[in-house]
């Protein structure tokens, strides 16, 4: 089959990682695979052999809000795809690429649209809400990365979705050649104890709870403990939320550094997007992963960290309960409550016996997630689609 996978982002996280790894696995299985990605702000996408990569630039526009950014991104992606050769499968990984493909289906350019739903956003904007609804209800086939979201799609949208989970490159993360000291040196913080969070500063990632949790834990951690926040702030970023996060940091007496290689006198480093090739080093350079999300599709970051041997402190949300066990392979805390998360961060950093148990059990959990299983399930869905 000729499979075309489209994604709104080239940043090496979540849905973009799913899109890339699915494309690579399908290519390895003999399919002709294309990966189309919007590259926002010049970010690129590194993909293995056998996959034809088409990067579609979407340059930032000053003062543009999320609705305008989504509409423009979908239009730019549709314009690029309109010139592409026919394909058997057109697979969108998000509402932006789904909107582009749905527009092309309406024009008769593509015969059908498959959509993977990683999670459902909560939008206050009517345009974004309608884009999301259409990307779920108006496509020809829906996939979900967890049983939780498959059930939600059924109950909220009346859509039956096949579960096609994420995988993890276990060996890539588990076998990072650097030790903790050398990885820390490469990242610019050496042996300072590090609490790592990924996903940037956005509401559903729990950024404000995170910074308050770190502040509450800091008195029980070594004086030079550092909170590192990696990742971009997302297509739906809200400048007011970032401003509130910065206000929180100032109120809590935390000195924030913007950019890589934080200086010794900062408490928090917001380091931005980390290239995918550097992710194993980033995990190795940290001492605990903090994951205070309020809403996730799967939690790929958690599985990567577990594979890398990093203890995880995560929000107790249903999608994580599908594969995590509190006190066995992670520590789970109530959503939105900085007190229990602060306590868990302290224990995960300071209790050596607990750390060892969490790491051992977490790596066993992570081994169960394989990208070849993801590709097999996607193939089964594709086989049932009508091809031109």
Account of the 3D structure:
The chain is α/β, with parallel strands linked by helices and 388 residues long. Helix content is 42%, strand content 17%. The protein is built from 15 helices and 14 strands. Helix 1 links the parallel strand 1 (2-7) and strand 2. The model has no long low-confidence stretch (mean pLDDT 93).
Keywords:
single chain, 388 residues, alpha/beta, Rossmann fold, 2 domains, seven-stranded parallel β-sheet, 15 helices, 14 strands, 42% helix, 17% strand
Question: Quick one: CATH class of the largest domain?
Answer: Alpha Beta
Give the CATH architecture of the largest domain: 3-Layer(aba) Sandwich
Shape: globular
Kindly state the percentage of residues in helix. Answer: 40-55%
Short description:
The protein is of the alpha/beta class. The chain is 42% helix and 17% strand.
Helices and strands in order:
Elements: E1 2-7, H1 14-28, E2 32-40, E3 51-58, H2 66-82, E4 89-92, H3 95-106, E5 114-117, H4 126-137, E6 141-144, H5 147-157, E7 161-163, H6 170-174, H7 180-187, E8 194-198, H8 207-217, E9 226-230, H9 239-251, E10 256-258, E11 268-272, H10 279-284, E12 288-291, H11 300-307, E13 312-315, H12 318-321, E14 331-333, H13 338-350, H14 352-366, H15 371-383
Parallel strand pairs: 1-2, 1-4, 2-3, 4-5, 5-6, 6-7, 8-9, 8-12, 9-11, 10-11, 12-13, 13-14
